[in-house]
From TrEMBL:
<feature type="transmembrane region" description="Helical">
    <location>
        <begin position="38"/>
        <end position="64"/>
    </location>
</feature>
<feature type="transmembrane region" description="Helical">
    <location>
        <begin position="6"/>
        <end position="26"/>
    </location>
</feature>
<keyword id="KW-1133">Transmembrane helix</keyword>
<keyword id="KW-0915">Sodium</keyword>
<keyword id="KW-0406">Ion transport</keyword>
<dbReference type="GO" id="GO:0006814">
    <property type="term" value="P:sodium ion transport"/>
</dbReference>
<keyword id="KW-0739">Sodium transport</keyword>
<feature type="transmembrane region" description="Helical">
    <location>
        <begin position="428"/>
        <end position="445"/>
    </location>
</feature>
<feature type="transmembrane region" description="Helical">
    <location>
        <begin position="193"/>
        <end position="216"/>
    </location>
</feature>
<dbReference type="InterPro" id="IPR001734">
    <property type="entry name" value="Na/solute_symporter"/>
</dbReference>
<comment type="similarity">
    <text>Belongs to the sodium:solute symporter (SSF) (TC 2.A.21) family.</text>
</comment>
<keyword id="KW-0472">Membrane</keyword>
<feature type="transmembrane region" description="Helical">
    <location>
        <begin position="76"/>
        <end position="95"/>
    </location>
</feature>
<dbReference type="GO" id="GO:0015293">
    <property type="term" value="F:symporter activity"/>
</dbReference>
<feature type="transmembrane region" description="Helical">
    <location>
        <begin position="403"/>
        <end position="421"/>
    </location>
</feature>
<dbReference type="InterPro" id="IPR050277">
    <property type="entry name" value="Sodium:Solute_Symporter"/>
</dbReference>
<keyword id="KW-1003">Cell membrane</keyword>
């Protein structure tokens, strides 16, 4: 019972600190929509880097990743820690720099708003928002499921699943609703530093207890020799390349990440951030995947449906430290979900509510609608998470969440064309997005092949988005020349 009190004290204490940061940020936040969504485009290098970093880290980092390494070896580090880190850094420059320029010049807050203005199309603006919300809703739900399950595991079931998910949801709504992006960015920075610290402490603790890194690695390869050979696990070169490309391109269009391209205070901030990005990714994913791989050599038994990391920590570290790492896992989930809630609210208010419902809404009114939107969005995903956690079905929502990276990746190539090719048209953009998303959804839900010529279907859908956008653009009317000139591209 004492261990339970320590564990809950650590988690609740962390949540209260996050809420306190949100209250301080609220006192500094204007009541305008731009300040609520983008912190008035005033974010510096450290906060931009860590808020992007923490936003991308969900339950996968602490639970799914180590589980994958436990079952199939540590090679995923090559996908997430190296290839994907470098690919996303390049996209951060190619997309983020251009978005920052036009966003600062014209006051854009969302991707849909920017593309709608580029092509003078409310329909395109609504389409981008609709597609983004389609993939975002189940992804937020999965974070709440992960939080509920984490607290069940930490407390041996004393805290029920629904209570754990509700606790995290209430805290997120409170500080996101209060403080907007400024509070989210500050808490993300706290969460990012916290996550890095506890995961490296876990590595150091277990390595010290078990004779060092060499001994742990030797134990791993003795128990699973295939883990020492590249390609010896479940991975093929085509699979790893496809995963890296789809995840990197998907991340670039994730609403909570894409909006961060608008929020830097100056261009030097962007340049420093994307240059440091691969280093920061490696600093997190290397220890997370090493712990999962080492657990094989340590003889950790993982029952079906369980996570290796809590079991490993319970075996080799005291209860208070295991609670710290679980708090780090909750931080990962919250730092993803809080940004998703804020971005989902902005896409709803800026791209659906304002253009289709209340075009003349004041900035202050939009800000309050956004705060209500955060609560409604979070409440809806929470109810869905309860149904899934209680065995109530909603398998389609879970599938959407699991495949969200590929869904967002279908937006990225049309976005690149809009930013750099003056010949892109409104009809071309709509054709590229709609065709790729429909074919991708068909492969997600219908019994269609997962690969073609050994390459993942998501890559072929991305190619379809390119071909459809270019082909339709060549035979349809371009956007007004003045719109293209706003983006620094000439109409062909």
């Amino acid at each position: 019972m004492a261990d339970l009190g320590v564990s809950l004290g650590v988690v609740v204490g962390y949540l209260l600190i996050a809420l306190a940061i949100g209250v301080v940020a609220y006192r500094l936040t204007d009541r305008t929509a731009e300040d609520y969504y983008l912190a008035s485009r005033s974010v510096g290098t450290v906060v931009l880097l860590f808020t992007t970093f923490a936003t991308l880290l969900s339950a996968f980092t602490f639970f799914g990743g180590p589980n994958l390494a436990f079952s199939a070896g540590p090679e995923w580090i090559l996908v997430m820690g190296l290839m994907d880190g470098i690919l996303f850094a390049l996209l951060w420059y190619a997309i983020g720099y251009k978005q920052w320029l036009v966003g600062k010049a014209h006051g854009y807050v969302t991707l849909g708003e920017m593309l709608g203005d580029r092509f003078d199309s409310t329909a395109l603006r609504g389409l981008v928002a609709g597609v983004s919300l389609l993939w975002l809703f189940p992804y937020v739900m999965l974070q709440q499921i992960g939080a509920g399950q984490a607290l069940v595991g930490l407390t041996d079931g004393v805290v029920p699943y629904w209570a754990g998910a509700a606790l995290i949801t209430v805290f997120m709504v409170a500080y996101v609703g209060l403080s907007g992006l400024r509070g989210v960015a500050w808490t993300d920075t706290l969460q990012g530093v916290f996550m890095l610290g506890v995961i490296w402490l876990a590595v150091a603790w277990i390595a010290t207890a078990e004779g060092g890194v060499s001994a742990l690695t030797a134990g791993m390869t003795d128990s699973a020799p295939e883990f020492a050979a590249l390609g010896g696990g479940l991975y093929s070169p085509q699979w790893m390349i496809a995963q890296a490309v789809v995840i990197a391109f998907g991340v670039a269009a994730f609403p909570q990440v894409n909006q961060r391209f608008f929020m830097a205070d100056r261009v030097e901030t962007l340049k420093r951030s994307f240059a440091l990005w691969p280093v920061l990714v490696l600093l997190l994913f290397v220890p997370a995947f090493l712990l999962g791989s080492w657990a094989v050599g340590l003889g950790i038994e993982v029952p079906d449906g369980s996570n290796v990391l809590p079991l490993l920590l319970n075996e080799y570290t005291p209860a208070w430290f295991a609670a710290l790492v679980i708090a780090g896992a909750l931080a990962a989930m919250m730092s993803s979900s809080d940004s998703m809630l804020l971005s989902g609210s902005s896409y709803f208010t800026r791209d659906l509510y304002r253009p289709f419902v209340a075009p003349d809404a004041s900035d202050a009114r939009e800000g309050w609608v956004a705060r209500v939107g955060v609560a409604v969005f979070a409440g809806s995903t929470f109810l869905a998470s309860l149904l899934v956690g209680a065995g109530g079905g909603l398998d389609a929502l879970v599938t959407l969440g699991d495949t969200a990276f590929g869904g967002y990746a279908q937006l990225t190539i049309p976005l690149l064309l809009a930013l750099y090719w003056g010949g892109t048209t409104r009809d071309g953009m709509i054709a590229g997005v709609v065709s790729a998303e429909l074919v991708y959804l068909a492969h997600v839900f219908l019994p269609l092949p997962a690969t073609y010529l050994t390459w993942d279907f998501a890559l072929w859908c991305m190619l379809l988005s390119l071909v459809a956008t270019v082909a339709v653009s060549t035979v349809t009317a371009p956007a007004p020349a003045a719109n293209a000139e706003k983006f620094g591209v000439g109409a062909d």
